[in-house]
DNA sequence: GGAAAATATGTGCGTTTTACACGTAAAAAG
DNA sequence: CTTTTTACGTGTAAAACGCACATATTTTCC
């Protein structure tokens, strides 16, 4: 049952070697590692010139990117329980960086949106990130960048499409805490 | 200073539009979101048939992928302080999933490696992940998959290359806690 | 139309996770 | 060979987190 030569036919006749998938997974792990580096956030926040709790930074960025956005969706994108995110949003409100507003079509949803101050901050963060990305990707050709972006988008959509699923709390909702 | 038409020349004459970079960043955010979903880990762990604390799972996978690996490097890949990871490794040792061994050439480093039991577990996790990936990427052609993997690897290397850097704690080592 | 189920959000509260301060040991730099 | 840097670990206290539970709104279905 070693997987070194494991090959499996897919429904439409293509084959995916384990090796290729592992290679892909390894690259993704590296990317996630970089994105999860706290120093990375720290640099951006410092550039933006504002002190912000570690846990709040990714939320602010997500609100900027995907807002107006509900707490549950925000929690999903952030990989945290919605109760945790709810509290963190509360802190962002206190800091004057975001606001809540009831969704027009579904009054259960209290959308989170950036305030002017929050927008100013994410703008500076975007600039900092863009600067870093330019430095990292400066030697890529325009065509290559286009292909990269296309593949990334397509891959993201593919894995986003995996049924939320498998996991979907069954037996108990409890997490598997030891 | 709006960025809608912001274009900047790079050292070798190419241009990177902000739009393209933003598009790329958004895709990366989606990917990271999926990877960070706790339910995802939960599913894998359940598949592997063993209860494992949430925080321990990513470490086990990293040790399997990159081990033997030192605590500091593990901490970097995991985006946590090395003291945190040190303790978590201790727990993995207690669970009999990993072992520590002093590096032969640098006795400061206590490499972390999988035990047979740990390897058996990561093998099952790998199978579960592979199954998910096949489901998600089953309709990609072999050529496309190759390109995807290549681009991912190249992008990972590019951002891994960003000097650890900018951030590098200066004034104080203290994190920017509020 | 209305009961039942599903979804979105939020608070109480105990647990888990995390990082800073500090110390030791080994290697690298000078 | 002294100084600096790097790797690792423990004490301690705070931050982050999630489950149980409750409310409000929408959706489902008979």
From TrEMBL, chains A, B:
Pfam families: MarR_2. Residues 45-145 form the HTH marR-type domain. The keyword Transcription regulation applies. The keyword DNA-binding applies. Keywords: DNA-binding, Transcription, Transcription regulation. PANTHER family: MARR-FAMILY TRANSCRIPTIONAL REGULATOR, TRANSCRIPTIONAL REGULATOR, MARR FAMILY. This is MarR family winged helix-turn-helix transcriptional regulator.
């Amino acid at each position: 049952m070693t997987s070194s030569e494991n090959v499996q036919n897919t429904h439409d006749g293509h084959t995916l070697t384990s090796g290729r998938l592992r290679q892909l997974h390894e690259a993704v792990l590296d990317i996630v590692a970089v994105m999860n580096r706290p120093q990375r956030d720290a640099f951006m926040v410092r550039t933006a010139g504002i002190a912000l709790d570690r846990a709040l930074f990714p939320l602010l960025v997500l609100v900027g990117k995907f807002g107006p956005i509900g707490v549950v969706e925000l929690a999903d994108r952030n990989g945290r329980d919605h109760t945790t995110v709810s509290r963190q949003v509360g802190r962002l409100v206190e800091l004057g960086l975001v606001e809540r507003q009831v969704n027009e079509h579904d009054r259960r949803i209290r959308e989170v949106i950036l305030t002017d101050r929050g927008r100013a901050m994410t703008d500076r963060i975007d600039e900092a990130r863009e600067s870093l990305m330019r430095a990292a990707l400066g030697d890529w050709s325009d065509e290559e960048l286009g292909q990269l972006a296309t593949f990334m988008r397509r891959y993201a959509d593919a894995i986003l499409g995996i049924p939320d699923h498998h996991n979907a709390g069954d037996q108990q909702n409890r997490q598997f805490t030891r």
